[in-house]
Amino acid sequence: MASGIGAWFVLKDSFQWVLAMGLALLLALGAIAAWRGREERNRVLTAIVSVCLLFAFGVGLIWARSEMVGQAALERPISGVFDGRVLDRIEQPAQDRTRLVMATRHPETGEAIKIRVNVPLDADQEAFSEGSVVRVQARLMPPAPPMLPGGYNFARTAWFDGLVATGTVQGEPQLLEAAERGSLLAEIQRSLAAHVRGRVDGGPGTIAAAFASGDRGAIGEADEVAMRDAGLTHLLSISGLHVSAVIAGTYFLAITLLALWPWLTLRVRLPILAAAIAALAGIGYTLLTGAQVPTVRSCLAALLVLGALALGREALSLRMVAVAAVVVLLLWPESLLGPSFQMSFAAVIAIVALHGSAPVREFLWPREESWFTHTGRRVLMLLVTGLVIEIALMPIVLFHFHRAGVYGALANVFAIPLVTFVSMPLIALALVLDVVGLGSPAWWLVEKSLGLLLGIAHFTANQPGAVKLMPQMDGLTFSLFLAGGMWLALWKGRARLWGFGPDLLGTVMLLQTPVPDLLVSGDGRHVGITGESEELLVLRQSRSDYTRENLMELAGVTAEPVGLEDWRGADCSADFCVVTLQRGGRDWHILMSRSDEFVTERALAAACERADIVIADRWLPGSCQPRWLKADRRMLEETGGLAIVLDGPEVTSVAQMQGDHGWWRGRRGD
């Protein structure tokens, strides 16, 4: 089913989608016809038919989901006054803003649309709760496609969220109608986050609020970057670790306390009752923290584990993982492409497969040994588990974020037990003690434990070579890593070792992936040049962190960019820059536009004639004819951002990865 969903994103248009479903159904019918009457092969027949039908179902599922929830983006930026009802309020104090998701009307067509606007933090935030009607003056922009090939595709995310535009409020928003009753869960979540931040100061307080309520909006940029570069970002997203800790803690606490009641113990199966109480705690925690996809997935998996414990079955199995994945994909099939879904399930699959293997079972089998040896065995297994998880997640992290923390496995060995067995229980204890006003000592311990967590993150992230950047991994390489990992997880015995084949091939292909010589943004304003120095050379120094990080990540460069006007190998004027690059045994002359000033057509045509590549954020006349490539606004509006390898040469565009899907079709005005 996941393969069918993935195929819909990879294939280009409705003809190919229908063809994929038709071929799958024909293959299923062919299998039935070929093996009709051969009873000994019914299992093979069932497997083939099931796979084909589920593949076709996956293609149809995501196609239907796209048609139902997708909304065409605005064709161009617009400014105006918008009246709308607040659907969601997302507080982000670390960025000095609050985001309002609003239902309003299109200023030209009058149809109902959903937008998201940023409101300054100093505005009256409490008045703009869910359900209130507000008036804002804002400049709205269509959701941005990837800036470069392999970059973050916000346009696709916005399509499945139903957003047609995002923007920033200009001036003070006005409250037109107060909400009769806001979202109770949202109010509890915000109140809980504010309460925790009021009890614990600084960075530890923002982390504690994220653990307690799922609100990450107050986490500072420095702490966020340190956690990311140390491989600890997964601790900030409410997912398997947090939900499991809440459910496991509730289960063992419930079964221990209930066992003290002899009357109940003699009449009720305590594991079933404790599992029911833990399930309620897990569901409540999931709802309280926003019911995001990773949290729902983790809650479903944990509920299956509780069911297995209550029935006396094996608690952790790949069947449990499969059921949780199916439920999530039925509800949000688009989540398959998100790093959250992929990383969550990859980590769980790696853990279950590792601990289900015969060598690990034998290593952890109970035996007569000293406490020191027993503890050492568990600590070693924890280190191995962390290493396996890091290896399993590495391709996913590189594919989506183009960077990986080298020391993440070691940092997780200390951070995961600290969060699971110290910080989260202390937060729960402190919240309970606050009911009677005795939570201060527990909050002090929370602050110290989370201060230690941030200390581990900053220490790890600051080590030499802690972060490695890689250029964009292509789809084939990523598929090889996924295929090898799934083979290693699903098979047993020596046949499992065949999974290393695709992984080794994927590693070789990844190491041979060329770094683009030129990176051109979709608007033509930003150009990055690699291979001439340790730094990335850029046409314009941007104040946008998003632009700078995109260029650096997709170029695989960690050093801060250097402007072309400051590089001795470039000849720059106020209007143009000219550089010559030696690639593939020849010189490439590149002409890049820097301004919007008028240039005479004859002078421009002469300059284009001497260049191999011309890049401009303006429309260039037909008389501008470079020897190989003219990437002006006319071309870039069709192709999006470009990654150019000159030793080939080869051009990769954003459009090549989008097909005729709604978020790209609407951008072209089709």
What does this structure look like?
With 670 residues, the chain is an alpha+beta fold. The model has no long low-confidence stretch (mean pLDDT 85). It has five domains: 2-69; 78-182, OB fold (Dihydrolipoamide Acetyltransferase, E2P); 190-469, no CATH class; 475-511, no CATH class; 518-668, no CATH class. The protein has a six-stranded mixed β-sheet, covered by helices on one side. It has 23 helices and 19 strands.
Task: Provide the descriptors you would attach to this structure in a database record.
670 residues, alpha+beta, six-stranded mixed beta sheet, five-stranded mixed beta barrel, globular
User: Could you give the order of strands across the largest sheet?
Assistant: 12-11-10-9-18-19
Number of helical regions: 23
Structural class: alpha+beta
Query: Can you tell me the number of structural domains?
Result: 5
User: Which segments are poorly predicted (pLDDT under 50) over 5 or more consecutive residues?
Assistant: none
Shape: globular
Largest beta-sheet characterization: 6 strands, mixed
Percent strand equals: 15-25%
Average pLDDT for all residues: 85
**Rg from Cα:** 28 Å
Distance between the termini: 30 Å
Q: Determine the fraction of residues in helical runs and give it as a percent range.
A: 40-55%
Number of beta-strand segments: 19
